[in-house]
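Quick one:
INPUT:
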């Protein structure tokens, strides 16, 4: 089983190394993070829950660790986290259904084009 707090402790020095190796890139990333997380129409806790759901949908374990930690620091409850995870599950499956319809459409279009080519030949 993954030790999530340990994961963040192990990653932190590597992230510091990245900040030293690529200060301008990492400074820009930090600015994006600060801008995205700033409370406006949505509070920071809600934004961390959204980030957590996206981390799950994208299957980023490291992101999960950091966004769970941040969501807890923002006061997220277990019920709020599990509801966000429900959305991640829904969105992970939903886009697959939508893209499956695209793939089927492409298959049919390519099939029709191949038939037309065969008839023309």
């Amino acid at each position: 089983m993954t030790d999530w707090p340990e994961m963040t402790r192990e990653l932190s020095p590597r992230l510091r190394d990245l900040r030293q190796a690529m200060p301008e890139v990492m400074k820009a990333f930090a600015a994006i993070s600060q801008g995205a997380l700033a409370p406006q129409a949505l509070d920071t806790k809600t934004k961390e829950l959204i980030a957590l759901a996206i981390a799950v949908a994208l299957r980023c374990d490291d992101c999960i660790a950091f966004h769970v930690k941040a969501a807890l620091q923002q006061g997220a409850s277990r019920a709020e986290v599990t509801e966000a995870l429900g959305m991640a599950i829904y969105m992970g499956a939903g886009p697959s259904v939508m893209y499956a319809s695209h793939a089927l459409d492409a298959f049919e279009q390519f099939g029709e084009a191949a038939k037309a080519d065969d008839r023309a030949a």
